[in-house]
């Protein structure tokens, strides 16, 4: 008995008109499209991961600032003030300016000198940033007055005789004059006078 393994529904494939080159071109094209689709999918996944990472980082930073702000309000700790610096910190900065004007450098007397310098640099930079970003704010003059004191004081912390120069260098490295010029222009635009007239009046 003879067996046939071809089955009854054998398909007849007609390759008339096709060539080996066109078949390989189609295969290569579909492979390229699949590869590009995979690359696009990986790019989207990386972008989504990056967005999530940034969002989580900002949320954690905000939570940390809020925590430091609450501790600052309870203790007046300079370290926690620095930890709370960021959007919405103007009121805390003004409070610190009041403390500094009353107590001077006693506000950092219990802090190791190198940490005190770091904190004062961070506070000075934030004072400059907020005052220059909102020069018409009623608190801007308080912050600028404190900043002037920090950058011109001759006697500060005994272990840091060049404190004022160090803070000023820190600010200059962060576009101090450009920020002041921008703030000045904002004041001039708001007052409606020319820059030269405003300068002459000052």
From TrEMBL:
Skewed-composition ranges (Basic and acidic residues): 32-43
Chain intervals with Polar residues compositional bias: 18-27
Chain residue ranges for the region called Disordered: 14-43
Stated name of the protein: Uncharacterized protein
Organism: Calocera cornea HHB12733
Top-level taxonomy: Eukaryota, Fungi, Dikarya, Basidiomycota, Agaricomycotina
